[in-house]
Design brief:
Elements (H helix, E strand, L loop, with lengths): L3 H32 L9
């Protein structure tokens, strides 16, 4: 139980990094999708 602080810090850092990466990818995708004309968007 001595290492609980380190373990929690690593979990927080990992989940924080994954969340930041996911948000970056989603924001970048939306920005790039806005640049495409509508005929090139098969998902619409």
């Amino acid at each position: 139980m001595e290492d609980i602080g380190f373990i929690l810090a690593v979990y927080i850092a990992t989940f924080g990094s994954v969340t930041a990466l996911a948000l970056f990818i989603l924001r970048r995708g939306r920005r790039l999708a806005a640049q495409l004309p509508d005929e090139d968007k098969p998902w619409i």
